[in-house]
């Protein structure tokens, strides 16, 4: 019986480590987004919140892997600081990984907000008129280059 409980506890701990950290960092990114771009409806808030968590959970680990391969000394230093503080080495990894994962979730919040605002400003237009707006934006962008 105790072996089953130990296995269940280990599996639960692994799931929290795998899914909990990205969800928590994504939630923090969404909370930071609330500070700057407040959603107008509950539906918009939910979609922006969900996209921030998804972005943090997918792009965040990729950014951490890239940074780890580019600057491995940064992670080694963070692990050493964690050990000096009396915690596990893994906590040092989180010193670096958590802020990166939060930062990875913020663009989703702002991009979704920008799309919502863009569509809201064109509420009375049909799809063809919105397509014309996109073409005009592209033309203006090319003129700037």
SSE inventory with pairings:
Blueprint lengths: L1 H35 L5 H29 L1 H13 L4 H33 L5 H18 L1
Helix pairs in contact: 1-2, 1-4, 2-3, 2-4, 3-4
Structural overview:
The chain is mostly helical. It contains five helices and no strands. It is elongated, with a radius of gyration of 21 Å. The protein has helices spanning 2-36, 42-70, 72-84, 89-121, 127-144. It has one domain (2-144). 88% of the residues lie in helices and 0% in strands. The longest helix has 35 residues, at 2-36.
Summarize the structure.
This protein is mainly alpha-helical and 145 residues long. The chain is built from five helices and no strands. The longest helix is centred in the first third of the chain and has 35 residues, at 2-36.
Radius of gyration based on Cα positions: 21 Å
Euclidean distance between termini CA atoms: 69 Å
Low-confidence stretches are 4-8
Structural class by secondary-structure content? mainly alpha
Helix content, binned percent: over 70%
Number of DSSP E strands:
0
Q: Could you describe the largest sheet, including whether it forms a barrel?
A: none
Order of helices and strands: HHHHH
Number of domains: 1
Mass-distribution shape: elongated
DSSP helical segment count: 5
**Beta-sheet strand percentage?**
under 5%
Mean pLDDT figure: 75
Features of the shown structure:
145 residues, single chain, 88% helix, mainly alpha
